[in-house]
């Protein structure tokens, strides 16, 4: 088994570096992609796509590769760097993504979709595809979006509060199974100690965030920045007076929302309404 090797001098772009390391480790063992697939039990084409940078794969696949090559933790570390690499996102989101990764607490309001930090792979794929993204770019953005969920995991995960308009829970995915998985995930994360979810019911009436997805990030230096997004564009807001105005509006909307306990019950009721998949 090859020893864990220093990778200094190779590509400095995380996604490319990860793909390069996979290819070098495999060729050093003289294995074909087909042989690798047979040994590890995954379709060999998956490994080909990972080595060409078309997809990052799942953490389970990467851990299996680490074990196979005798490189404990190396590939998983590179995978995590690739998943969190802001260069995967379009230019307008890059600074926001970097700040998100540094935030010590986060607050969100969602108009019609769960926040990216709480989306399942199935939800992310359908939502991104609806925006016209397809092919390799779609695979990459799904990997990137679902990889962001790691930010809210672990003992040192930052506090996260989200207010979800009832519309978020009333607009299902086309695939009932994927929609069920998304609702189950929301119910699951609502029980984490660092996550607080509120549902804003339609009965709350008009409010100041009716057409705006909003995220606040509190940073290590004590500043709070906001990111506001609608169907046309997104804007990173750092001017303190504007951030404060948005924050007052957010607090007013939170006061109109259901408690975290009642919100979880609301999500579970929505889950009961999802049609059962036909038995095969």
Features:
280 residues, alpha/beta, Endonuclease, Chain A, 6-stranded mixed beta sheet, 6 strands, globular
Label the CATH architecture of the largest domain.
2-Layer Sandwich
Portion of residues within helices:
40-55%
Q: Please indicate the percent range of residues in DSSP E strands (runs of 2 or more).
A: 5-15%
Main β-sheet description? 6 strands, mixed
The first-level CATH class of the largest domain is given as Alpha Beta
In the predicted model, the low-confidence regions spanning at least 5 consecutive residues are 1-8
Total number of helical segments?
A: 12
Strand order of the largest sheet: 3-2-1-4-5-6
Class from helix and strand fractions: alpha/beta
- H-E order: HHHHHHEHHEHHEEEEHH
Question: Would you report the number of β strands?
Answer: 6
What is the CA-based Rg, rounded?
21 Å
Shape: globular
Report the mean per-residue pLDDT as an integer: 88
Structurally, the number of domains stands at 2
């Amino acid at each position: 088994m090859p020893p864990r090797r220093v990778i200094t001098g190779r590509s400095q772009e995380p996604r490319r570096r990860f793909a390069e390391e996979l290819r070098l480790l495999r060729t050093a063992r003289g294995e074909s992609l087909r042989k690798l697939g047979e040994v590890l039990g995954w379709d060999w084409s998956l490994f080909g796509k990972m080595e060409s940078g078309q997809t990052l794969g799942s953490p389970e696949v990467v851990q299996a590769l680490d074990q196979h090559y005798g490189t404990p933790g190396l590939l998983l570390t590179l995978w995590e760097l690739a998943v969190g690499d802001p260069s995967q996102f379009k230019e307008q989101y890059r600074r926001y993504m970097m700040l998100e990764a540094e935030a010590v607490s986060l607050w969100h309001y969602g108009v019609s979709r769960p926040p990216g930090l709480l989306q399942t792979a199935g939800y992310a794929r359908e939502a991104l595809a609806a925006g016209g993204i397809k092919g390799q770019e779609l695979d990459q953005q799904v990997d990137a979006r679902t990889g962001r969920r790691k930010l809210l995991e672990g003992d040192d995960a930052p506090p996260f509060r989200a207010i979800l308009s009832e519309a978020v829970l009333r607009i299902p995915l086309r695939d009932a199974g994927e929609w069920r998985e998304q609702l189950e995930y929301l119910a699951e994360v609502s029980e984490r100690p660092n996550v607080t979810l509120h549902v804003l019911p339609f009965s709350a009436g008009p409010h100041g965030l009716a057409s705006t997805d909003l995220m606040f990030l509190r940073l290590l230096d004590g500043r709070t920045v906001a990111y506001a997004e609608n169907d046309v564009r997104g804007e990173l807001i750092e001017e303190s007076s504007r951030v404060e105005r948005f924050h007052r509006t957010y607090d007013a909307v939170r006061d109109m929302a259901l408690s975290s306990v009642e919100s979880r019950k609301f999500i579970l009721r929505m889950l009961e309404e999802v049609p059962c998949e036909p038995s095969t």
